[in-house]
Here is the input.
Amino acid sequence: MAGIKNVALPIVGIGVIAAAVLAIPDARSLIFGGNSFEGEMPPPQMRRLTEAQYRNTIADVFSNEITVVGRFEPEIRIDGLGAIGASQASISASGYEQYYGIAGSIADQVVAADNWADYMPCSPSDSAEFDRECASQIIEQYGEALFRRDLSSEDVEVWADAMQASMAQVGSFENAAGLVVEGMLSSPQFLFIIDRLEDDGRGDVMLTNHSMAARLSYFLWNSAPDEELLRAARAGELHSREGLEAQVERMIASENLRQGSRAFYDDFLDLSRFSSLEKDKLIYPAFNQAVAEDAHEQLMMFLDHHLIDNEAPYPSIFTAKETFLTRSLGMIYAVPVVPSEGWELVRFPEDDIRGGLLSHAGFTALHSHPGRSSATLRGIAVRQSLLCQTVAPAPAAVNFTVVQDVDNPEFRTARARLTQHRTDAACASCHRFIDPIGLSLENFDGAGMYRIREHGEMIDTSGEVDGIAYDDLPALENILANHEAATSCVVERLQHYATGRSNTEIDSYWNVELMRGFERSDYNFRELMATIARSEEFYAVSFPEAEGGEDLQQANITTQERNS
Amino acid sequence: MNGMFRTLICGSVSALCLFGAAEAQETRQAESRTLADIAEPARLAVSDPTTIGLAFTYFWYDVHETPEDCPDGWAMALRDVAIMHLPEDRQEFLLRPENRSTYYRMGYALSAQRMAEQGGESICNIPTSYNDPPMRVVQSDTAYGRDLDGLISDGNDARTCGTVDFNSPDGTPGVDNELYRVMGCIDSFRRDPEFAGGAMEDYHIGSYRDGETTTVMEIRGVDDRLNDDQVEIGIYASFEPTMFDSEKNGLPHASITITDNRIWHSLGTGRIVDGELITDPFTLRTRLGWSGRPAEYLIYDTIIHLTLNEDGSAEGDLVGYFDLEHAYWNNFHDAAGALQVANGYTCPAVWTALQEHADGRYDEASGRCTAISTAMRIEAVAAFVIHPPEDQLVDYVIDTTEYYGVPVEQIMVEGADIRARDVRSLGQSDEEDMMEALMEELEDSGTSDSETY
Here is the structure.
């Protein structure tokens, strides 16, 4: 479709604040029961779609057959989560070019002659003639799904006018429809999940039904709202307690919940680093791309198996014995795997130290160097990701010679090398905090393969964590399973992941409530997801005003629109 | 649409764009996996401590090479037969390195000519049709191998058909390895010849590395890995590849499912002495698929010696009497006619040599030996041998009657089905295509004179 540069893309009014559209008296009380929470309300957000959300959305709005080709803006992690980074991320000029290219590629596929009937609600009687009725149907169908809001008749008119205007240059109704799809996919209204507000009936604002649907859907399914959720939003059902509850129950029970839970695991454990995980082929010849991919998937399946399918208490992930293996992973674990293709559910014997989260190749290999294990990286990962503790960065100009020289005959094990390293006072305090946990994982080399010796010397995996001494990894796993920080950490991270924000005042109170509920549910992770999805705090929003009265939200959106 | 952008982006980093597409599909596929297909309850993730599993990473003849082996030179290839009647100066000219391609093409031309003379039939299917110069065979008296018959044969034992035993490199007499005598002067079967050296070994070992051939072994009932006076062994073919790293070293701990074809399950017994497995004689029949060949090892009275290492790997040797026809088909048969040009033998010569040097399985009726002694080297890594369910096991042989030009009764095994040969490698196809082209060229030239080339 030539001449694109000359086609003016429509700037559709977003209709950001539909003030007092629905005169719902004290609506929040109606939804959440009237027990208003304490603390200042958080501002509305614009969360940039993550790559996974983008791909899932395209698959769900169009189909799995649509190929998404291109590079995405890199993830920004803030306070340990990409979800928080997404709510503060923008799109660079070069990044936008990529999104624009991806949008064009998707649009091409959607309006291709062979696909038209699969994706479009109608066809024009003559491709050379503009069919406004059909155009309106297309705009209404995809506008709501992609922008996650209801389109006004004016919105539809603006898009239809632009589509008609473009026909002269792109030559056919189908090409013009492609331009509409491309324009929608290139719009910040698609690329960002934008909180849209309306009057809550008591002088404050609240999320619109469609924005609640989007927040709910991207949290639980990591994708766009499905037709049923959009229907409920159109019907205003999410602004009723029963309506919201019905949708949460439906979504929690759905197979699509795995998309949401997996997105959280990825963010929680920072598993996006698998895409760049490399090992030295000479040192770890069995570790290849297939192993890395399977190790990543294994963690997902392991966590889903215990937390979603079996609804086992969250702490059990540290002490579990069941996991999944493929033939590739079987070579890392050195155990037989029966199916030639796919996965096998296996159980490690009670006297085998493997089975828990920390013993997974996905954890030990990910938190290692390309050519050696790393007690320090593993210790940091446990402290920061699983216990939400802060580890200070290494001071400048540290001498790592002893640690890196794994073939030094004087220091044959990681413990010996790190003990020597800790003689440097600048390193000692942090390493005393980090290393014991990591040293207990030294039975796994840099590729996650089990070993009992390093350079011929028996590996000592005993240690002490937070004042409790232990003998080996299973003992450490038991300590972590009973560690208060482990359960509070996952609650806090899921809470932050869901809202895309770090602790605000209301989040602190909310966190206490969530923790109590988590304990009462015997640490049921699935129930925790549902509780968050039902919480008033999850949807809490205020209308911010900049100093001097400038409407920050409107200014931000206007800028994005102008840029589009 | 923004075609210009896409051209710029995907045109400059096309690999990335392709990767992105594939990645996208994979992501969706991965996410769409459900646990519903995975059988529960969980299988215990342990290997049987009384079983040792091995995947062969090297399985090739134990070729002992000394300068005294072939005093008359390497065995003649078809290319040599093609030029042997030319004037000496012409031969010298063709044998110069810069004329090698012409020299080889003359061999191909002769191969095509012979096939044309035989109506398109492979000469290797009718090796008695031509009287090529006798095979040059090993003249030295040293070879790897073992004494298979308890005799130190000096050429006068009727039951070993008049063959003469070798001594092992350590001086032990009575070594039976007549297949080495036949193949030991073929340049491509040795490693020391300048040009073709190592070619056949690379073909065979390459078929393991490429996943075309997989041989696994299981030692069962092992109570003590150092000394056990009674163990069971099984050698199996598999259609799943043995894993190798980028340095061509076998990777341990792969799970490999064996073929459902019981014909390629070879079972036996043995013992472990000081960490070395020694099998009792058994019949080995397993597939070998190098370059698309429907070949099989069929070795009688097989004895394996394997040193079992602490890390699960093993190395050692296999000796036995190779069925004479299978020895021929496996190592020398050449459906397209190109192999005997590029490698130092001709089918007629090697067929005759195999008959002359066969030394095992004496047939009273014909007064001839029907098998030939051999010695092979084995290297293996630890593996998990996965067996198909018992009720899924079948018996079949591959129909090679047309490929080898033999009656079906000759390849049939009692009680087995016969299945069509449906695997052909790219290499085999290329060979056949090339020979077809040459034959057409020859026909178009209106001459049968190989010197045309």
Remarks:
- The two ends of chain A are 19 Å apart (CA to CA).
